[in-house]
Records
---
Amino acid sequence: MKKHFHVKRETVDGYLFILAAMVIFLVFTIYPMVSAVTTSLKDYRPFGSEWVGAANYKAAVGNALFLKSVKNTLVYTVATVPVSLAISFIVALLIMPFKRKTQSLFKALYYMPAVASGVATSVVWLWIYNSAPSGLFNQIMSILHLPAQNWLSSSRTAMLSLIIMSLLGGHGTHIITYIAALMGIDSSYFEAADIDGASFFQKVWYVVLPLCKPTTLFLLVTGFINSFQVFMNAYMMTGGGPDNNTTMIGLLIFNNAFVYGKYGLACAEAIILACLIACMTAVQFRVMGDNVEY
Amino acid sequence: MRGLYSLHLHNPVICRIRNALIGIFLLLFAAVILFPMIYMVAWSFGPDREMAANSYSIFPGIWTLESYYAFFAKSEYTVRWLYNSFVTSAAVMVSNVIFASMAGYAFAKISFKGSRPLFSLILVAMMIPYQVTQVPLYILIVSRLKMGNSYAALILPGCATAYNIFLSKQFFSSIPSALIESAKIDGASQLRIFYNLVLPLSKTVLAVMAINTFMSNWNTFFWPFLVTSKEAMYTIQVGLKTFRFANGTRLSPMMAGATISTLPMFILFFSLQKYFLEGVTIGAVKG
């Protein structure tokens, strides 16, 4: 007995449309994701890897350097992301009273650093932080009658230097996002506040900030996620030194994998990183997410 | 947004003065933020010389093009690096605009079995940090497929990114289904609907996707650095990084290199500013 399968036209179309993207996605994203889990459970060798169970995870968690890199990443993130949001919010607020054309000009100016690559930016900052007295930052120090610093190679200032670089490095996307949020606030809120006799700062504090909360949460979450994966600055600027004081998780994973060839350990650390990021995001939504409407 | 700032209707001069002060502050702060870029461009016109201990200030004393010559002369591959970056970024951009948008359309507007679980898989993949996949991907491309030092290795993994599929799905979802249904009743195939009806309505989102994809591939360092070991296959970012070590004491050629690597992005930005800025909020608001 023959049975006719009647496959819906829609289904055929659907799969034809997603075919190419899905093949690429499965081979180059899903397969590596699964493989990362299995690799993390192995002592990887090109031929004949051995299953070692959770040994890589134990090694990672028990390793002082890994814990230090987590701490470094956390310090860097906490010092940069919230400050960047505050700066961006203020700048966005200050751009508001201008006419549309002036606003576009400022938006463009503040967004511009974001189009330069990490390598190019790092190359420039390496010179700005030059440890000779003629280095740009050291010239500023001498104007302020402060001693010249070994910015990137002294354990006192290396992390600080990376933080300063991030804070002076442009907040383009944050500013643009905040401006979009501010434009979305209905002016009737301010009319009501005016009737109540609210001052400018009261309006900002009681009206604008609460209404921008979803945006702030979004920027905070994505900011933390991106910052936890940071690799470029430590790799290009300090190499993680001095004394691993600027080794971020991203750099440590890179070193373990591609300098020392410990693929299993690197995968285990990457998966721990993914879990850390997931937990952090969940906590941020818990703490800030109540009474936020989307 | 009106109403936050008082218009000082009784005295418009106060309003003018206030805006002028704010404007001056914003310009000064922008100058600080832009300073590294200004420094980079200014010093790229400096002389190709070793820098004596205290001979450099904010701007070079002599303005010349010799550092650009030096950047191209120091390595026989400089032009090749730019070419590699261009080919890679353009290929990834085109394939994303075609394949990611097709997939996004299917997830948004074609109801087929399995579309929900597959799309959730894409959402999950977007949340996984790249460190998780980097090692297996490296093993796959370089050890298994032996594709190291090839355009395929540079291009293939990014050909349809989860983010672009997600972005286009979000956009296509906002197109009224009635429009597509009526085209179907007229007998149009899905491919025709997509090409003749949906794409023309989606120029902005496609442009944003194209620009963002091109820019992130042009600027990316990590992956090209992993899969290329021959200088001839470097992209400009990888080349710039190796150039750094070869000429660590010469400021101007380094800045010339950094400027050249950034110049295409600046040109794109100034000519297509609207789409760059739109791209920032498209992901944020719709996400």
---
Amino acid sequence: MESDTTLTSAETEQWLTTPLTQINDGQATATSGVLASRRSAALRRQKSRLIGTASTKIGASRRRTRTPRIQTEPETLLAAELVNKTWSIYKASPLYSFSINLLKNYSKSLTVELEAAIKKGVAVGLDSETTCKATFSVFEGFAYDQDGAQSVKLSVSAKRKQISDNEPSEVLTLLLTGRMNDASKSISGSFTCCPVMLTRGQVMFTDIVMAWMQNQFDCSIYRMSFSQYHLAWMVAMWAGILPENTSPKSVMLVYSVPETEGVDTLTLSINPHDCKRLWVSVHNADSSSFLESEVHTFHKSLELHFYQHFKIHLSCMQLSSIGTPIVFVSSEGKMKMYSVEHVDSVLQLLVDLIVEEYPDRLQESL
Amino acid sequence: MGDLYVEDAVEYFTNPHSRTATRGNVPLSNALAAINKEASANGLSPDSITILLDVAASSRFSDTVSQKLVKCLIPRHTVSEDAVVRAISWLCTNIPSSNLQALIVRWILLVYDLIDSKDRLHALYGLIFHFIEDDTMCPYICHLLHLLTRREDVRLFRIRRLLNLQSRVGVQTYISGLLSIYRLYYPNIVSLVMSGRRKIFFKNTDTAWAQVIRKVQARANAVQRPITVQVPSLAVRGTKPRHKRAKLQLVPSLQSAVDQTDVTVPTDSIQTSISITAGMKLEQIHTFEDLLTNVDRLELPMQVAALLRHPHLQHLLLCSSDRLLTTRLSYWLHHTLQEELILGNGENDAVRELLDMVVTFTDFIQEGVPVLDDIIIRYLMVWNGRDYRSHVLQLITRMGMMPFSDLRECILEPLRQIYCSSSVYVKCQVLYCLLQLLTNYSALEWVTPDPNSNTLPLPNTTSVFSPKADTQALALTTIQELIAYIDKLCVLGLTQERDHAFLMHYTLSYMELASTLGQRFGVPLQQVVSAFLIYRCVFALHAMAVSRVCGVICDYCEQYRMMAKKAGDAGKQEGWDFIVNTLNGYTLDICDTLWRSKAFSFHLNPKRSTMIYHLTSADAVARTRVANFHTAFSLLQHPALMGFTQSFLKQQPDEDRSLGHAHKHRGKLLTHLQERHLQGVDRFIHTFIRSKD
């Protein structure tokens, strides 16, 4: 049984007119979010001290200058393909001997694998009447750093021979964003770093494709999952960004309620304009980076407000998904982007999060 | 006759003396009925299936009996691969009739999914292929081959034979079925005229039989699942959602690399014969000798991590000139362990299997994997001290050298927390891990500098993974501080556990290691074991402690002498005074206690510094009200050694069983102790006390 409580925008408006100075003291209390952030910051500190990379202090900004930057051309239609669809996110270790020149071979090999799987009856729900075809293609308009290393798109289509109209239906689309180099002699050249993979389609095909890729490129691929610390960052960073053209969606935070009968989740949705006002008051307009203290302030103010009205401590619950005007993200690794202009900043954050977990030797070479 | 048990029935069939005639053979029909009943009710165990299939295929009994037996082979859970391999070997002898052979193949098809492993079946592909010539078996053999075919089984000569067969018997659906899967792998070689509609190639002839098998399997599986009690967990919910399909096996199975250009090059790619110059598949290497003979034509594996499963192939990792294989392995290991270990929830069999393999691998290469250092450090921050404890401790023993402050913060601190709050057995495990770490650091990271040579020692180039940086100066300080840290842990542990024997043993191992580091590894002596430990062992209630601590003092003495001799003309160095004084103090106090019966006699020579608790007045000891404390801990009367004195006296002639007598014959008492493996005391006395007699 599910029941959610939502905050009306009227209440939010009313509360936001109360002095914001009460909230801006920015003192750290032991909420679970802060504990997680402390631990994560401590981890970063220790890790950086150990292995001698550039140190990051508590309160440091989120942007790192080390990871590759994604640039997209928003006007292209292909970037728009990403928007308004729910993607599942996977992360991969560096791929070995992936070359952009061999895309045709990969397509053929994967097609064979898919057909064999269908014939063997592994594919549940598909009889042997179906044929599959896999196509790798370069995804234009998605440059990765200035050297133009591009992304690769894989689309798997299946069609049933019984139906006379031979329109193949797309059952899986997969997008690899990463640096694609030509395989060269040096070690760093043989590996392609392809941290983020976005997929959309049937799970069965995803499994087969992932298994094929793990075998072909000697990597390991796992589903991305976001901790609530990451989700808190995301909602704080992007809550105030309203895309101009369309009417913005409301900011939503979904908490999962622990072990209570009858209540599974708690959804908090806030009018985006009110959220923007809060965001503007919290964020220092001059700096281009977002600080951890700002994240903390933002969340604490929301929690305090909620407590005043409903006497529920939001800090005791875990965030399971967040929605902002530009993107919706859930902790199981699902994402839906709404705004074309902000695609690159969202993807940049994903890349940052994944690259953070790589071994440091690899991080330095990126 | 009543119903037989299945075991008796099986026994009837295996007994070489059973009558094999069919007519009028009542025991035979009873046995058959019993097996049939059991099979259709509950299914047969894998062992029974192996035995019965062997009996049936050998055709010892008549054909009808054998066929009925094969029809009864309904597996309960799985079928062992042995059974199938033996059946196929019987088929090769051509002893069973062709109907029986066909029936056996049909049975294999029905239980194909239940066979526990198929490695040997794949190896027998060529043999099975041979059976297509037999007309009765051909459809079933083609079906079996259809299921077994992998890319490397497709050979030109096999395609030719199939086409020949087709021209002989006409276009048959089963031949087309097999050709279609060949076509899948090499579309340019096989051309097949196929009608527009996809046909069903292999008819299911044994639907009733299959249904019985399914029913029995379902029943067996339902029984096996235990009733689980939902215990609500107090642990904080992990951030990672549970997978609906958890991976059963993390480490991939071995598969040789497929040449990338295969798909594009049209005709030459397929192997036309078993040529000697062709590349050798890794799956065919089973022993080290095979590896040696074929090392020049091995094909590298697709996923390097699969090598973790095969110890004899791990030599490959040691031989590669560029570090490509090891880099691939590092990245894969790091990513997988990051996901499964650090972000995972609770304990997991697949992860345990992977960790087992990783530990075996590090033992094989006798060093650690650098990326695992990173993983261990991250994992220790979120570790609960219990999951995979033995694996984590073993991986810690292989950590790379790092400054002591980092070592303490990342490794020793979490270990200390576990140490202080756990039972004595965990304490021992942690201590053992740290001792191994110390040994590995001393043996591998510290290279004794040669005072005669002028060149600097070469950096370590024999490492499997990236060459280590020059860590000499770092190594010495870390090792010395690690010794001091382990010392403190021992002190803490002994106090907490009140001299538990296990902990005492590991403490003594630590002391023995610390006292022989110089002789074994050339680590310079810069500190001595703390007084607390020495005296706790001297006054312990356990004979092992007394003896071993005497041995430790002797080792220290030897180490010091060796070091002094090596320094030679360079003379005394700083810090040696302290070591000398400490060791002298220990020696004199132990001599006083054990031999001269003058324990706690500080007042006799106030100038000599005694270590024992820096007592300043005789009253302090008198207040403990221990009677005769001077002699209470001597060799004869020490609480730990008293039993040995008594056993020594029992061996003496009757008139002389007194302590005074024992005192006179202390030399013999020492020999007596030595026979009972308490060599330390004897060695100590002979090293330090000049005998007057």
